[in-house]
Specification:
single chain; mainly alpha; Fic-like fold; Arc Repressor Mutant, subunit A; 2 domains; three-stranded antiparallel beta sheet; two-stranded antiparallel sheet; 15 helices; 5 strands
Length: about 375
Amino acid sequence: MKRGETGTYVVTAAGGERVRAFVPKPLPPEPPLAFDAGLQRALEAAVLALGRLDGVSTLLPDKSLFLYSYVRKEAVLSSQIEGTQSSLSDLLLFELDEASGVPFEDVVEVSNYVAALDHGLSRLREGFPLSNRLIREIHGILLSRGRGSGKDPGEFRRSQNWIGGSRPGNAVFVPPPHTAVPDAMGALERFLHDRGDGLSHLVQAGLAHVQFETIHPFLDGNGRVGRLLITLLLCHDGVLRDPLLYLSLYFKEHRAEYYALLDLVRREGDWEAWLAFFLEGVRVTAQGAVETAQRLTAMFGDDRRRIDSQGRRAGSAIRVHDALKARPILSLPEISRKTELSFPAASSAMSLLTELGIARELTGRRRDRLFVYDGYLALLNQGTEKP
């Protein structure tokens, strides 16, 4: 439905020139959303896919293993959208205090994303409401180190920003003046807490994402926080028990359509077109996560059976295999510590996993060697290859 512009323009001064900044109307949309048969089917398919995803998490032998790596994959993808060159391997190496193959600031940015998500989820589990205060806390962690650390981490902006272009005057989009940000974010917070509007949690998350991106309340990091907001909302509302749904890969693969639909909402009020795209993204992403979990479970089982077939050599190798499932890249001293095996025993067990083609040495060095669970990392890496 084309409702016309979903906000008003305010003329303001920025960068020494006068620009038209867009101030969005509060949610929910007016007139109300029109769910035709196609959009209703898209919603039902997305809800069904989310239910399967939430269910499969209970079937995983160790859910924490999957979550550890899946969260890190999302961190890489969301940061890549903003231009970082870091890969999943780079992040895992960084967490081992090993040098990665990308600029330090790139991998720090990805590491910050993991910390910001962990903080948000921890606060929600403590019963803290999903609020502007929590959003600011998450942003503060996201920009705590590296690029963007000088752009008011944890604070709503106090100056005009813009999207695209070299200055406000030639920008693709100019968000609200900083003076309008507190009221706009206050209205968004009220919408998130209002359960009397009759909207499903999933639709509410889709609308909130667009509104947040339109307000662009921070000087930097808005895209990453806006993508995190989707997952946090679904966990907060009980749609997902665990943070297993991340749309960054879908947005990355459909970047042009994503930005065009955000613009269409602002210019013409076509929330339904955006929701059709968003709900399809949820369905595809949830289905992909289920398939990844199933493939990982099958791979872990197959590799365990190959190790078991090695007779007396299998005992220590199983412990090392378990350590690599928890952290796909490890050094021998770390493996020895995690498995409580002696260094010679850990080294011998790793040699067996290497012979079986389960693990591979990364460095080519004789000392300070690193080993990777090859099949596991290859499966997780899909979609995160460096641009």
